[in-house]
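Input.
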Amino acid sequence: MVQHHIEEPIEKPKLSQHGRSALESKLANGTPSSKPTTTWTPSSWTSKPIKQDVVYHDRSAVEKALAKLERLPPIVTPTEIIKLRKSLKDVAMGKAFLLQGGDCAELFDYCEENAIESKIKLLLQMSLVLIWGANKPVVRIARMAGQYAKPRSSPTEMHNGIEIPSFRGDILNGYDVEDRTPDPSRLVAAYFHSASTLNFIRASLASGIADLHSPLDWGLGHVRDESIKAQYQRIVESITESLRFMRTVGADSAASGLETVDLYTSHEGLLLEYEQSLTRRLKHPPEFASLFQGEPVDGKVEDDGKGWYNTSAHFLWIGDRTRQIDGAHVEYFRGLQNPIGIKVGPSMEAAVLVELLDIVNPRKEIGKVTLITRYGEGKVEALLGKHIEAVKRSGHTVIWQCDPMHGNTRSTPTGIKTRQFSSILSEVASALKIHREHGSFLGGVHLELTGDAVTECVGGSEGLTDDDLSLNYTTYCDPRLNEKQALELAFLVASHYRKD
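Output.
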């Protein structure tokens, strides 16, 4: 007689103690717990005041979402994270350049083949131009597979005379008015959209989307100025000739790196209940120790050979609105093995910047922290030099990255947000010059861009004006460079390096 085995039902996920701390925080209107602590844990941030908080009203739904996230597997691995850290150490030492770009606020709808491919191809082309200009390797990090949350200046806005919650990204609520109530099930949806996006990125790279044997579309028909078009064409011809030479001499084997590239993911670490749920204590990969070659390693490797890794992305950053010294976000970030970024705006005091670095990187690990400066073209000259000198005196070796987008946003007379291409370029050019004057160097750029033909930023060789914005203005948050403007910016930055 055949005996049928009846499987026991899978036990429902139960929330960990750290998860319970986050749960109580989410239901307490952002009030810190009454248990301040100096020992870091994934939930020690709940003992600190928090900015840009979100409060849910359905306790069981929050508990269910956080318990599910804690059970799900990592999206990225410690091996990938440490590989990026090694590359960023090269950037901090001036041996490589960092290109970081993608959407302002990623939507779940962008988890789609064409949208993902177009951004991969654009970042690849931009990196080739920057390699040509800077004559050094380029580390590529995408604002993709997780950039679903956005800080807002106000938690509410007026709609037809009624106050409603602001749209804060797909991970929290929907753009449609009827979807503005924060929904904890979106936390789990964000995980699966992130995982699906990164899965397709990995599959595309493995299938040859970045294979430099394939012809690249360098279409320059949009460039109206003939002298500028001729300049760009010379750069394209130089890149094409270099690739042809490498194939001719047999330097295009698989081992040469011409068939694929590394592309890492990043997002702003804004929703700490989500980030905490994907923070795992995992074994360090063998390459971990090589991060500290030539440095004393005392205290840098835990006794059990493990560390706390945020497995939602390879790289996370703290926004300008959430970088308070005694705040929850700084507390959370200080315990991670991941490379991290800190947005540095006009309100950042030099002494506070150094104090921040001491908190999140007390061992002064080279390249662990990227400082993402976002002053605006009218303020960079007065502020960047002071910050450079303060960091140099502190003994920290950081990556200096220019975000020329956020400080250069303006509104048209009709209330449409946009950015002027010339202002974006001006801030990058000023950053290059100021670093040179202070014996420093610009390590990278951080851009909001898309691979689509949107009309959200004005200027550039297309000659877009305010009147053109309505042609294809699709952003749900801040304006992005379209594919032509982004590539043009890469050409111009590369030209700056060539002149030097």
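The chain has a mean pLDDT of 90.
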